[in-house]
Amino acid sequence: MIQVLADGVVAASFIVLGVVGLSMIYNILNFPSFAQGDHIATGAYIALGIVALAGTAGSIAGLSFGWPLIGALFCATLLNGLLALLIDRSIYRQLRLRNASRISLIMASFGVALMLRNLIVLFAGHDPQYYAFAIQPALGIGGARITPNDLLAVIVTAVMVVALHLFLSRTTLGKSMRAVSENPSLARVNGIDVDRVIRWTWLIGAGLAAIAGVLLGLSVQVNPSMGFELLLPMFAAMIVGGVTSVYGAVLGALLIGIAEAVTVQYIAPEYRQAVAFLVVILVLLVRPQGILGEKA
Amino acid sequence: MSGATPRPAAVPHLAVTDLVAGYVPDVPILRGASLRVDDGEIIAVLGPNGAGKSTLVKAVAGLVPARSGDIQVRGASILGLATHKLVGTGVAYVPQVGNVFTRLSVEENLELGGLGGSAAKTRQRIAEMYTLFPDLARFRRLAAGRLSGGQRQMVAVARALMAEPHLLMLDEPSAGLSPRMVELVFHKLLEIRAARVSILLVEQNARAALAICDRGYVLAEGRERFEGSGRDLLASPEVGALYLGSTTRLAS
């Protein structure tokens, strides 16, 4: 049981890091970005490109990689954020300036998703790739066995969630983001530069997506549809947690991750998304606005 | 009042001249409206529904595009200024609805009102706001959405005052409030004016607004139709019959 819980938390980590961006973009730009999964993949591939240039020489504390990958992770976080900024400026911003409807923005995000995935295939091909091939002995922690890479994913995610909380509750930019997500017009009246807040939203959302991509790549593999496959669990997590709340999305991701792990262990791996969605339906029957969502 | 030595013509805090504005290019709501707010004045803008009262303040705030005419703040035109830069000109605006961030705490609402200043300045200003609105200090950690209508209106006004504006524009601050609460809010406006802040007050509640204002404008069909002191407008039969709200019209 503890093993299942540990597997669930590891699976949830990748969803958490991805869904934070999905939720922030949804709340600030007011549309669900179907490209969020592919931003995860681009982050993983940017890191892969850097590693290919720099190598993964060495190994730190039982992890399957060395310092170059840590450096690649930081660069990929930044570059992936800049890539999202570029996409916003050239596509979504043009639509905003023309007062495009929400459905137009959603369809545009589908287009961005396809474009990113095909760019990846164009440059790196379809085949799965790996950051490193070192075999990792699993660590035994409190009755559960977990690889050092997966443990790192959980720790990094936990740190990011705490950092996100501090950012949203303590910093002016974080409070401005919460203000814009609730009432953009009042935010403007208050002197908040909404365009600046939007830029930071993409930087943070795509930055966290890159971290998700690298950690997922370390845990499993890097392939062009790795992020797309996370899209449904991310949406499920955001909806079950309550779409207006980033914290709800984090809780939702934990719920989905654990539900998937339970299914893999006790039912069959093929049913893992079906069971996760069953959980979503059950929660929404009891609480239509989601765990931390507000009633409309 | 013109004395023996005429006062040098002071630059008005706000001067709106022949303003044409509206959401749709060919259907302006304001059709050449003009008004002026001088230093330390409380100006009421009254008129029937659809007269363009809210559009006027929204146009000043940059939320509704102006087609022609001019809007000057202390002598400088602010036409085309991005809304988020209005605070920098010393003009604060309290919208009629959605005027507080309901998910943010009272104190966070105030902090966002004082974005331009230093942290120390913001803290000092928040303390001043708690002196002006003692109720708010008790609810500082509470989400603003959980407050009563009157308390929310206080948060909205305090938030707007955080940036130390020289002009405060309020859109229907009495909407949805009990008569006692309206009295309290309007009394606060007099206190705020005493601290040398001019006030532009858009109101449906004409009697309450005319009672505290120095001058008032009655808007109809996108233009100002009457201008005068609060007392004169209250006494004017045409104004009373036509524009001071449906109750007067029904009674006459």
Would you write up a description of this structure?
- The complex is a heterodimer of chains A (296) and B (252).
- Helices cover 73% and strands 2% of the residues of chain A.
- In chain A, β1 and β2 form a beta hairpin.
- The termini of chain A are far apart.
- A two-stranded antiparallel sheet of chain A has the order 1-2.
- Chain A has one domain (2-225).
- Chain A has helices spanning 2-29, 36-54, 67-97, 102-124, 148-170, 172-182, 184-189, 194-219, 228-241, 246-266, 272-286; strands spanning 139-141, 144-146.
- Chain A is globular, with a radius of gyration of 19 Å.
- By secondary structure, chain A is an all-alpha fold.
- Chain A has eleven helices and two strands, in the order ααααββααααααα.
- In chain A, α3 packs antiparallel against α8 and α6 (172-182) crosses α8 (194-219).
- Chain B is α/β, with parallel strands linked by helices and 252 residues long.
- Chain B has a single domain (14-251), classed as Rossmann fold, CATH 3.40.50.
- Helix content of chain B is 36%, strand content 23%.
- Chain B is built from ten helices and ten strands.
- In chain B, β4 and β5 (76-77) form a beta hairpin.
- Chain B is globular and about 45 Å long.
- The model of chain B is unreliable at 246-252 (pLDDT under 50).
- Chain A binds chain B through residues 172, 175-176, 178-179, 182-183, 185-194, 244, 294, and chain B through 61, 63, 82-88, 93, 95, 98-104, 108, 111-113, 115-116, 159, 163.
Contiguous low-pLDDT stretches of chain B (5 residues minimum) are 246-252
CATH C-level of chain B: Alpha Beta
Q: What class, by secondary structure content of chain A?
A: mainly alpha
| Pair of chains with the largest interface and how many residues each contributes | A-B, 19 and 26 residues
Largest sheet composition of chain B: 6 strands, mixed
Which structural class best describes the helix and strand composition of chain B?
alpha/beta
| CATH fold-level label of chain B | Rossmann fold
Number of domains of chain A: 1
User: Could you spell the SSE succession of chain B in H and E letters?
Assistant: EEEHEEEHHHHEHEHEEHHH
Low-confidence regions of chain A: none
Return the CATH architecture of chain B. 3-Layer(aba) Sandwich
Helix content of chain A: over 70%
Sheet with most strands: strand arrangement of chain A: 1-2
Oligomer type? heterodimer
Q: Which term fits the overall shape of chain B?
A: globular
The ordered H/E elements of chain A are HHHHEEHHHHHHH
Report Rg of chain A: 19 Å
Give the termini separation of chain A. 38 Å
